[in-house]
Protein backbone atom coordinates (compact mmCIF):
# COMPACT_ATOMS: atom_id res chain seq x y z
CA UNK A 1 0.00 0.00 0.00
CA UNK A 2 1.41 3.42 -0.96
CA UNK A 3 2.25 6.03 1.67
CA UNK A 4 -0.42 8.43 0.32
CA UNK A 5 -3.04 5.72 0.44
CA UNK A 6 -2.12 4.92 4.05
CA UNK A 7 -2.48 8.58 4.96
CA UNK A 8 -5.89 8.83 3.28
CA UNK A 9 -7.01 5.67 5.03
CA UNK A 10 -5.74 7.06 8.34
CA UNK A 11 -7.59 10.35 7.74
CA UNK A 12 -10.80 8.53 6.88
CA UNK A 13 -10.75 6.47 10.05
CA UNK A 14 -9.75 9.51 12.10
CA UNK A 15 -12.70 11.60 10.94
CA UNK A 16 -15.00 8.61 11.23
CA UNK A 17 -14.17 8.05 14.87
CA UNK A 18 -14.12 11.76 15.74
CA UNK A 19 -17.51 12.62 14.35
CA UNK A 20 -19.57 9.47 14.62
CA UNK A 21 -18.39 7.20 17.36
CA UNK A 22 -16.62 9.58 19.73
CA UNK A 23 -13.85 8.16 21.77
CA UNK A 24 -13.13 4.74 23.17
CA UNK A 25 -12.51 4.92 26.88
CA UNK A 26 -10.09 2.71 28.78
CA UNK A 27 -11.66 -0.35 30.40
CA UNK A 28 -10.10 0.73 33.69
CA UNK A 29 -12.64 2.58 35.81
CA UNK A 30 -11.37 6.15 35.96
CA UNK A 31 -13.48 9.07 37.19
CA UNK A 32 -14.13 11.97 34.79
CA UNK A 33 -12.10 14.30 37.02
CA UNK A 34 -9.06 12.00 37.07
CA UNK A 35 -9.32 11.46 33.33
CA UNK A 36 -9.52 15.22 32.76
CA UNK A 37 -6.45 15.83 34.95
CA UNK A 38 -4.52 13.10 33.16
CA UNK A 39 -5.27 14.59 29.75
CA UNK A 40 -4.61 18.10 31.03
CA UNK A 41 -1.15 17.04 32.22
CA UNK A 42 -0.39 15.56 28.81
CA UNK A 43 -1.45 18.72 27.03
CA UNK A 44 0.44 20.91 29.49
CA UNK A 45 3.60 18.99 28.66
CA UNK A 46 3.71 19.71 24.92
CA UNK A 47 5.94 22.34 23.33
CA UNK A 48 4.76 25.59 21.75
CA UNK A 49 5.48 24.22 18.26
CA UNK A 50 3.42 21.10 18.97
CA UNK A 51 0.67 23.27 20.43
CA UNK A 52 0.56 25.33 17.21
CA UNK A 53 0.20 22.16 15.12
CA UNK A 54 -2.59 20.92 17.41
CA UNK A 55 -4.25 24.31 17.18
CA UNK A 56 -4.30 24.07 13.38
CA UNK A 57 -5.71 20.54 13.50
CA UNK A 58 -8.31 21.48 16.12
CA UNK A 59 -9.33 24.48 14.00
CA UNK A 60 -9.76 22.25 10.93
CA UNK A 61 -11.86 19.78 12.91
CA UNK A 62 -14.07 22.66 14.13
CA UNK A 63 -14.47 23.94 10.57
CA UNK A 64 -15.54 20.52 9.31
CA UNK A 65 -18.08 20.12 12.12
CA UNK A 66 -19.43 23.63 11.52
CA UNK A 67 -19.83 23.01 7.78
CA UNK A 68 -21.59 19.71 8.46
CA UNK A 69 -23.93 21.46 10.90
CA UNK A 70 -24.64 24.11 8.26
CA UNK A 71 -25.33 21.37 5.70
CA UNK A 72 -27.86 19.74 8.01
CA UNK A 73 -29.66 23.05 8.59
CA UNK A 74 -29.78 23.83 4.85
CA UNK A 75 -31.15 20.36 4.03
CA UNK A 76 -33.84 20.81 6.71
CA UNK A 77 -34.71 24.24 5.25
CA UNK A 78 -34.97 22.74 1.77
CA UNK A 79 -37.35 20.05 3.05
CA UNK A 80 -39.56 22.71 4.68
CA UNK A 81 -39.59 24.80 1.48
CA UNK A 82 -40.42 21.69 -0.56
CA UNK A 83 -43.43 21.04 1.67
CA UNK A 84 -44.54 24.67 1.34
CA UNK A 85 -44.21 24.47 -2.46
CA UNK A 86 -46.34 21.30 -2.52
CA UNK A 87 -49.05 23.02 -0.44
CA UNK A 88 -48.96 26.13 -2.67
CA UNK A 89 -49.21 24.04 -5.85
CA UNK A 90 -52.23 22.25 -4.38
CA UNK A 91 -53.82 25.58 -3.37
CA UNK A 92 -53.22 27.00 -6.85
CA UNK A 93 -54.80 23.92 -8.47
CA UNK A 94 -57.94 24.35 -6.31
CA UNK A 95 -58.08 28.11 -7.04
CA UNK A 96 -57.75 27.46 -10.80
CA UNK A 97 -60.69 25.03 -10.74
CA UNK A 98 -62.81 27.54 -8.80
CA UNK A 99 -61.76 30.33 -11.16
CA UNK A 100 -62.69 28.33 -14.27
CA UNK A 101 -66.08 27.36 -12.77
CA UNK A 102 -66.93 30.97 -11.92
CA UNK A 103 -65.81 32.11 -15.34
CA UNK A 104 -68.02 29.49 -16.99
CA UNK A 105 -71.02 30.51 -14.83
CA UNK A 106 -70.56 34.15 -15.78
CA UNK A 107 -70.16 33.17 -19.42
CA UNK A 108 -73.52 31.36 -19.39
CA UNK A 109 -75.27 34.29 -17.71
CA UNK A 110 -73.85 36.76 -20.23
CA UNK A 111 -74.81 34.49 -23.14
CA UNK A 112 -78.38 34.35 -21.86
CA UNK A 113 -78.43 38.13 -21.44
CA UNK A 114 -77.00 38.54 -24.94
CA UNK A 115 -79.59 36.20 -26.53
CA UNK A 116 -82.50 38.05 -24.99
CA UNK A 117 -80.97 41.50 -25.34
CA UNK A 118 -81.65 44.42 -23.01
CA UNK A 119 -84.78 45.31 -24.97
CA UNK A 120 -86.47 41.97 -24.29
CA UNK A 121 -86.08 42.41 -20.52
CA UNK A 122 -87.57 45.89 -20.77
CA UNK A 123 -90.52 44.56 -22.84
CA UNK A 124 -91.19 41.80 -20.29
CA UNK A 125 -91.40 44.40 -17.52
CA UNK A 126 -93.57 46.81 -19.51
CA UNK A 127 -95.99 44.02 -20.60
CA UNK A 128 -96.96 43.45 -17.01
CA UNK A 129 -100.77 43.31 -16.55
CA UNK A 130 -100.76 44.93 -13.14
CA UNK A 131 -98.51 46.57 -10.57
CA UNK A 132 -97.86 43.34 -8.67
CA UNK A 133 -96.58 41.57 -11.79
CA UNK A 134 -94.56 44.64 -12.71
CA UNK A 135 -92.83 44.76 -9.33
CA UNK A 136 -92.18 41.00 -9.33
CA UNK A 137 -90.57 41.13 -12.79
CA UNK A 138 -88.56 44.19 -11.82
CA UNK A 139 -87.19 42.33 -8.76
CA UNK A 140 -86.29 39.33 -10.92
CA UNK A 141 -84.30 41.62 -13.23
CA UNK A 142 -82.57 43.15 -10.22
CA UNK A 143 -81.64 39.64 -8.99
CA UNK A 144 -80.20 38.76 -12.38
CA UNK A 145 -78.08 41.88 -12.54
CA UNK A 146 -77.03 41.50 -8.90
CA UNK A 147 -76.02 37.86 -9.44
CA UNK A 148 -74.04 38.92 -12.50
CA UNK A 149 -72.24 41.55 -10.44
CA UNK A 150 -71.54 39.04 -7.66
CA UNK A 151 -70.22 36.54 -10.17
CA UNK A 152 -67.99 39.19 -11.68
CA UNK A 153 -66.69 40.24 -8.22
CA UNK A 154 -66.11 36.61 -7.22
CA UNK A 155 -64.25 36.02 -10.47
CA UNK A 156 -62.00 39.02 -9.84
CA UNK A 157 -61.32 37.81 -6.28
CA UNK A 158 -60.37 34.34 -7.52
CA UNK A 159 -58.07 35.88 -10.09
CA UNK A 160 -56.38 38.02 -7.41
CA UNK A 161 -55.97 34.94 -5.17
CA UNK A 162 -54.39 33.06 -8.05
CA UNK A 163 -51.96 35.91 -8.76
CA UNK A 164 -51.03 36.12 -5.05
CA UNK A 165 -50.49 32.36 -4.67
CA UNK A 166 -48.42 32.23 -7.87
CA UNK A 167 -46.26 35.07 -6.54
CA UNK A 168 -45.73 33.11 -3.31
CA UNK A 169 -44.79 30.05 -5.33
CA UNK A 170 -42.28 32.07 -7.36
CA UNK A 171 -40.73 33.41 -4.15
CA UNK A 172 -40.46 29.89 -2.71
CA UNK A 173 -38.85 28.59 -5.91
CA UNK A 174 -36.30 31.42 -5.73
CA UNK A 175 -35.65 30.59 -2.07
CA UNK A 176 -35.22 26.93 -3.02
CA UNK A 177 -32.65 27.83 -5.67
CA UNK A 178 -30.78 30.02 -3.17
CA UNK A 179 -30.73 27.23 -0.57
CA UNK A 180 -29.55 24.69 -3.14
CA UNK A 181 -26.75 27.06 -4.18
CA UNK A 182 -25.86 27.50 -0.52
CA UNK A 183 -25.77 23.73 -0.11
CA UNK A 184 -23.50 23.36 -3.13
CA UNK A 185 -21.18 26.01 -1.67
CA UNK A 186 -21.23 24.28 1.72
CA UNK A 187 -20.38 20.90 0.21
CA UNK A 188 -17.52 22.43 -1.78
CA UNK A 189 -16.24 24.13 1.38
CA UNK A 190 -16.34 20.86 3.32
CA UNK A 191 -14.39 19.08 0.60
CA UNK A 192 -11.83 21.89 0.62
CA UNK A 193 -11.41 21.82 4.42
CA UNK A 194 -11.04 18.04 4.41
CA UNK A 195 -8.49 18.34 1.63
CA UNK A 196 -6.61 20.96 3.70
CA UNK A 197 -6.61 18.60 6.67
CA UNK A 198 -5.38 15.74 4.50
CA UNK A 199 -2.50 17.88 3.20
CA UNK A 200 -1.67 18.94 6.73
CA UNK A 201 -1.54 15.32 7.88
CA UNK A 202 0.63 14.38 4.91
CA UNK A 203 3.08 17.11 5.91
CA UNK A 204 3.31 15.65 9.42
CA UNK A 205 4.50 12.32 7.97
CA UNK A 206 5.42 9.80 10.71
CA UNK A 207 4.21 12.13 13.49
CA UNK A 208 0.57 11.84 12.41
CA UNK A 209 -0.36 9.29 15.05
CA UNK A 210 1.25 11.32 17.83
CA UNK A 211 -0.71 14.46 16.95
CA UNK A 212 -3.88 12.53 16.27
CA UNK A 213 -3.72 11.08 19.79
CA UNK A 214 -3.36 14.57 21.26
CA UNK A 215 -6.22 15.78 19.05
CA UNK A 216 -8.41 12.97 20.37
CA UNK A 217 -7.49 14.00 23.91
CA UNK A 218 -8.52 17.60 23.21
CA UNK A 219 -11.77 16.48 21.61
CA UNK A 220 -12.47 14.17 24.56
CA UNK A 221 -12.01 16.96 27.11
CA UNK A 222 -14.07 19.31 24.93
CA UNK A 223 -16.96 16.85 24.84
CA UNK A 224 -16.84 16.76 28.66
CA UNK A 225 -16.71 20.53 29.02
CA UNK A 226 -19.73 21.32 26.80
CA UNK A 227 -22.42 19.90 29.13
CA UNK A 228 -20.50 21.15 32.17
CA UNK A 229 -20.43 24.74 30.89
CA UNK A 230 -24.07 24.62 29.72
CA UNK A 231 -25.19 23.37 33.12
CA UNK A 232 -23.10 26.02 34.90
CA UNK A 233 -24.64 28.79 32.74
CA UNK A 234 -28.18 27.54 33.47
CA UNK A 235 -27.47 27.15 37.19
CA UNK A 236 -25.94 30.64 37.49
CA UNK A 237 -28.94 32.14 35.65
CA UNK A 238 -31.32 30.27 37.98
CA UNK A 239 -29.49 31.53 41.07
CA UNK A 240 -29.77 35.15 39.92
CA UNK A 241 -33.44 34.76 38.96
CA UNK A 242 -34.37 33.25 42.33
CA UNK A 243 -33.33 36.42 44.17
CA UNK A 244 -29.93 35.23 45.36
CA UNK A 245 -28.30 38.57 44.73
CA UNK A 246 -27.50 40.48 47.94
CA UNK A 247 -29.64 43.56 48.54
CA UNK A 248 -26.62 45.85 48.22
CA UNK A 249 -25.35 44.19 45.02
CA UNK A 250 -26.47 47.16 42.94
CA UNK A 251 -25.00 50.48 44.01
CA UNK A 252 -27.38 53.19 42.81
CA UNK A 253 -27.32 56.95 42.35
CA UNK A 254 -30.37 58.99 41.38
CA UNK A 255 -30.70 61.83 38.90
CA UNK A 256 -33.58 63.46 37.05
CA UNK A 257 -35.85 60.71 35.63
CA UNK A 258 -33.19 58.00 35.72
CA UNK A 259 -31.19 55.78 38.04
CA UNK A 260 -27.57 54.77 37.53
CA UNK A 261 -26.60 51.38 38.92
CA UNK A 262 -23.14 49.83 39.39
CA UNK A 263 -22.74 46.04 39.52
CA UNK A 264 -19.13 45.02 40.07
CA UNK A 265 -17.40 41.80 39.03
CA UNK A 266 -16.64 40.90 42.69
CA UNK A 267 -20.36 40.52 43.34
CA UNK A 268 -20.68 38.06 40.44
CA UNK A 269 -17.60 36.11 41.54
CA UNK A 270 -18.80 36.00 45.17
CA UNK A 271 -22.05 34.37 43.99
CA UNK A 272 -20.03 31.62 42.29
CA UNK A 273 -17.87 31.08 45.39
CA UNK A 274 -20.99 30.73 47.55
CA UNK A 275 -22.59 28.08 45.35
CA UNK A 276 -21.06 24.59 45.67
CA UNK A 277 -23.03 23.34 42.66
CA UNK A 278 -21.14 25.70 40.38
CA UNK A 279 -17.68 24.87 39.01
CA UNK A 280 -14.91 27.41 39.50
CA UNK A 281 -15.90 30.34 37.28
CA UNK A 282 -14.27 33.75 37.12
CA UNK A 283 -16.00 36.82 35.70
CA UNK A 284 -13.65 39.55 34.43
CA UNK A 285 -15.08 42.86 33.22
CA UNK A 286 -13.14 45.01 30.78
CA UNK A 287 -14.22 47.97 28.62
CA UNK A 288 -16.92 46.67 26.24
CA UNK A 289 -16.09 43.03 27.03
CA UNK A 290 -16.87 40.44 29.68
CA UNK A 291 -14.81 37.27 30.07
CA UNK A 292 -16.08 34.09 31.69
CA UNK A 293 -13.29 31.67 32.51
CA UNK A 294 -13.26 28.10 33.74
CA UNK A 295 -9.57 28.11 34.75
CA UNK A 296 -9.50 24.44 35.77
CA UNK A 297 -10.74 23.54 32.27
CA UNK A 298 -8.61 26.05 30.36
CA UNK A 299 -11.75 27.55 28.80
CA UNK A 300 -12.41 31.26 28.27
CA UNK A 301 -15.49 32.73 26.61
CA UNK A 302 -15.74 36.47 25.96
CA UNK A 303 -18.56 38.64 24.74
CA UNK A 304 -21.01 41.32 25.78
CA UNK A 305 -24.43 41.78 27.36
CA UNK A 306 -27.67 42.60 25.55
CA UNK A 307 -30.89 43.67 27.27
CA UNK A 308 -33.94 41.42 27.03
CA UNK A 309 -37.41 42.26 28.28
CA UNK A 310 -36.31 45.41 30.07
CA UNK A 311 -35.02 43.49 33.11
CA UNK A 312 -32.55 40.84 31.95
CA UNK A 313 -28.93 40.97 30.79
CA UNK A 314 -28.25 38.14 28.35
CA UNK A 315 -24.66 37.13 27.69
CA UNK A 316 -23.82 37.09 23.99
CA UNK A 317 -20.60 35.19 23.30
CA UNK A 318 -18.39 36.56 20.55
CA UNK A 319 -15.10 34.70 20.96
CA UNK A 320 -13.43 32.06 23.04
CA UNK A 321 -10.41 29.87 23.53
CA UNK A 322 -9.69 26.38 24.79
CA UNK A 323 -6.16 25.63 25.95
CA UNK A 324 -5.25 28.91 24.29
CA UNK A 325 -6.65 27.70 20.96
CA UNK A 326 -9.30 29.95 19.34
CA UNK A 327 -12.82 28.56 19.12
CA UNK A 328 -14.85 28.90 15.92
CA UNK A 329 -18.26 30.62 16.09
CA UNK A 330 -20.14 27.34 15.64
CA UNK A 331 -18.12 25.68 18.39
CA UNK A 332 -18.95 28.52 20.81
CA UNK A 333 -22.63 28.17 19.91
CA UNK A 334 -22.48 24.54 21.08
CA UNK A 335 -21.79 25.78 24.61
CA UNK A 336 -25.05 27.75 24.67
CA UNK A 337 -27.28 25.40 22.68
CA UNK A 338 -29.14 24.38 25.85
CA UNK A 339 -29.56 27.96 27.07
CA UNK A 340 -27.73 31.24 27.57
CA UNK A 341 -26.26 32.76 30.69
CA UNK A 342 -28.56 35.57 31.83
CA UNK A 343 -28.82 37.98 34.74
CA UNK A 344 -32.46 38.64 35.61
CA UNK A 345 -32.23 41.87 37.59
CA UNK A 346 -35.93 42.22 38.40
CA UNK A 347 -35.31 41.30 42.08
CA UNK A 348 -33.03 44.37 42.28
CA UNK A 349 -34.77 46.89 40.00
CA UNK A 350 -38.40 45.80 40.40
CA UNK A 351 -40.73 47.02 37.64
CA UNK A 352 -38.32 49.75 36.57
CA UNK A 353 -36.92 49.44 33.05
CA UNK A 354 -33.31 48.66 32.23
CA UNK A 355 -32.49 51.09 29.43
CA UNK A 356 -28.75 50.53 28.79
CA UNK A 357 -25.70 48.60 29.96
CA UNK A 358 -22.05 49.53 29.56
CA UNK A 359 -19.21 47.20 30.45
CA UNK A 360 -16.44 49.09 32.24
CA UNK A 361 -13.20 47.98 33.87
CA UNK A 362 -14.25 45.85 36.83
CA UNK A 363 -17.96 46.70 36.78
CA UNK A 364 -21.20 47.09 34.81
CA UNK A 365 -22.80 50.51 34.54
CA UNK A 366 -26.59 50.33 34.18
CA UNK A 367 -29.05 53.06 33.30
CA UNK A 368 -32.51 52.37 34.72
CA UNK A 369 -35.70 54.30 33.94
CA UNK A 370 -38.04 54.42 36.94
CA UNK A 371 -41.67 53.41 36.41
CA UNK A 372 -43.66 55.83 38.57
CA UNK A 373 -47.22 54.70 37.83
UniProtKB/TrEMBL annotation:
Coiled coil regions, renumbered to chain: 50-116, 152-179
Key words, A-Z: Coiled coil, Signal
Superkingdom assignment: Bacteria
Record has Signal as a keyword: yes
Family annotation (InterPro entries): PcsB_CC (IPR057309)
Record keyword Protease present: no
Domain Peptidoglycan hydrolase PcsB coiled-coil: 97-161
Protein name: Peptidoglycan hydrolase PcsB coiled-coil domain-containing protein
Organism: Natronincola ferrireducens
Amino acid sequence: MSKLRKIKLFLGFSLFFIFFFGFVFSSIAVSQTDLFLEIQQKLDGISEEEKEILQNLFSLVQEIKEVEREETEIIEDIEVINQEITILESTIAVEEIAYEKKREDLKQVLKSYQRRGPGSYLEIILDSDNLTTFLRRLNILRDITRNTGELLGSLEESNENLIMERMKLTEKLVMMEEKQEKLRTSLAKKLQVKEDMEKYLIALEEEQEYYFQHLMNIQQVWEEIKPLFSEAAREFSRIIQEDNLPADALKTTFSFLRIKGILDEKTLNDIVIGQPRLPKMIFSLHPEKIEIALPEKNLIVAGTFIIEGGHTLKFQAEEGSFYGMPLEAGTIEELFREGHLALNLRPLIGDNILRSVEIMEGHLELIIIPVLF
